[in-house]
# Entry
Amino acid sequence: MTDDEVKRVYFNFNSAEPIYLQVAQQIEEAIFTGSYHEGAQVPSTTEISRDFHINPATVLKGMNRLVEAGLIVKKRGIGMFVAEGAHAVIVDRRRKAFYQDKVIQLIKEAKGLQISEGELVDLIKRGF
Amino acid sequence: MLTAKERSVTIYLFKRALVQLLYIIFWMIVGFVLVPAAISLINSNPLDLKGLLRNTHVGQMLFFLISLLALFGYRDFKLLNQNGISRKTYWKARLLAYFGISTLGQIVGILFTLLVPFQDSWNRSSIYMEMYGKFFANPLLNILAALAFIILAAYVVALGGIFVGSIFTLFTRKQRVLIFVALATLNVVGVSFIASSASQDSFTGLARSILKLIYFLVGDASRNATLGSFDPTVPFIVILLAGIVFCYGSRIVIAHFKLKSE
Amino acid sequence: MGIEVKNIKKRFGKHEVLRGINLEFVPGKIYGLLGRNGAGKSTLLNIIAARIFPTAGTVTLDGKTVCDDDSALEQIYLMSERNLYPEGERLKKLLKTTELLYGSFDYTYANKLAAEFSLDLNQKFGKLSTGYRSIFKLIVALCVPARYVFLDEPDLGLDANHRELFYRELMENYAQTHRTFIVSTHLIGEFANLLERVFIIKNGQILVAGEVEDVLAKAYLIAGPKEDVCKYSAGLNVIGHESLGNIYGNYVFGGVDDERHLPDTVSLEHLDLQKLFINLTNEKGEK
# Structure
C-alpha cells in the first residue's frame, strides 16, 4: 500500500469520539493490518496535523498513548517508529478483548434472533 | 529621540505626502503648461512662458496644496492601524512628516523665486516682507524673520489641515456634509452681518471693535505704522498659539478615531 | 503572560454589545471564538486590536496596556472582514508597507502561498473578489511576524479547495512558529479539530470557555423512548432536544451522573462541537 492509500483507508476522523483517541486507534489499526511494519516510521505529528487538519496537541496526545502502550517509540530528532513486537502486543490485547467485545455481543444478538447455541456454532463453522 | 517604529512611520507618511503632491503638481503642469502649449501650437499663438513663470507663486501654491493634503489622513490611518501602529505614533509621525513636507515646500518656493528669472524679487512677492519687511533696521534680520515666519506659518496651516481633517474623520459622510453646509451658511450670515453692521450707524461700535481686533492681529494696534513696518510680534504669537492648539487638538481627536465601515 | 481581556464592556448607543468579557489568550495555542451573528465577536476582536474603544475594561499583552503601545500592537495582527487596505494599492506594495511597519516580512513564504492560491501579487487590492481579498489577508497574516494572529471569518468567500489549502497552511505555520491563533468562524464543523481551546460567546457574554476536549466531554445526546430519556436526564442540564416519531433525544451539557443506571433502551453519546454550539446558542423557538 502506498502512503496515500494508507491515508485514505484509515484516516477518517468524524465519529463523536475524542479526536486523540481516534488518532491512536487509527495508527494502531494500521500497525495491526501491517500497513506500518515494525521498525517503520509512522507519520509525524506535524504531518498528521497538516494533512487532516487536527491540532498538533491533540495528535501528540494520541501518539503519547501509543508510546505509553509500547506500540511506538520516539527516536530523538528523527521521529516515531513502530516498536519491535508492537504487532504481537496488539494481537494479544485484541484477543483478550475479543470475548468481551465480540463474542458476548454476538450471543446477545443471536438470542434476540432466537438462534440456538447449536445453530450459532454451525453458522460460525460455515463462516470459517 | 524617535523609536525605530516612529521613524519608519514618519518616513512612510512623508513619502506618501510627497508622492501625492508630485502627482497633483504633475497634473497642474499638464493642465496649465502642456495643454496650453499644445493649443498654442495649433493656433500658432506662442505660449507666454515668461508671463506664466512670473505669475506662478510656487511657495504660496505649495502652501495651499500641502494644507489641503493635510486634511485627508484617514486612509493612512486605516492602513497603519491594520499594521499595528498606535494612534499616538500615527499622530507624531504625521506632525513630523508634514513639518518636513511644508518646510521643503517653502524652501522650494524661495529657491524658485531666487533661481528662476522673470520672477519678482523675493521680498516683493512675499506678503510678510510687504507688511513687516522694514520692521528691523537690519535688513538681514528682516529676511531671517521672514524665513522663520513663512516656514512656521506654512507648517501651522498644515497642522490646521490635520486638525480639521481629523475632526471631520470623526463624523460619518452624511454628518460631514451637514456640518459643511452649516459652516458655509454660518459664514455667509456672519460676513453679511459684519458688512451690514459696517454700513449702519447703529452697529458701528461692533464693527469698529472687529476692525480693531484685525488691526491688532496683523500687528498694527495703534493704526499709525506704514505698510512694511508693522510689528510682527503679535502675528508670531498668534500663529504659535494656533500651532499649539492644532497640535494638541489633533492628538486628542486622533485618540478618538474609530474604524468605520465605509 | 499572553493577552488578557478584563471585564470588557461595549455599548453602542442603547445597545449593549459586550457585557463584561473576561478571557485570556496564552502563547502557542489555537483558540476558537464562536458565536452567532451579532453575538459581539467582531466587536471584541476590534477592541483587542485597538481599532475601537471599550466602554469599560482593559486589554493587556504581557501586562502592558495594548491601546497606545506600538510594542504591544506589533505583536498583534487582526485579519478582518473589514478592508483597511486601500483599494488602489497593488498587493506587492501592500506587502512592502507591511514589512516596513511590522519590521519584517517573510517574502519567500508569501510568494509560495500566492502561487499555491494562484493569487497574482501585481493586482490592485480593489480588483480582488471577496474570496481573494480573504486569501490576500490570510497570506499577510501568515507571513507577518506578529505573535498573536486573530482571524475574523478567515473563510469568507473561500471555496472548499482553498479552505482545505488554508487549513493545511495554518497547521504547517503553527507547527513551525508556534504562535497563537484566534479564529472566529461560523464553519465550526471544519474548524473543530484545529482548535485547542474554545470560547463560545452569546449575547455579549462568555458562555463556555475551555479545552475543546474537556468541553465536549461534558456534552451528550441522550436518545431513546421519550419516557426513559426524560427519566434518565431529570436534573441534568438539558440544552435542547429533538424527536423523531417515538424516539426522543435530549442534548445535555455539564456531564451526566455516572451513578445513574442507563436503561438498555437509552443510548448515550457525545456531541461534536457544532451540535453543542447550535444547542447552546439556539434562541427560544428556534429548532
Q: What stands out?
A: Residues 3-84 of chain A form a domain with the Arc Repressor Mutant, subunit A fold (CATH 1.10.10.10). Helices of chain A lie at 3-10, 19-32, 45-52, 56-68, 86-112, 117-127. Chain A has two domains: 3-84, 87-127.
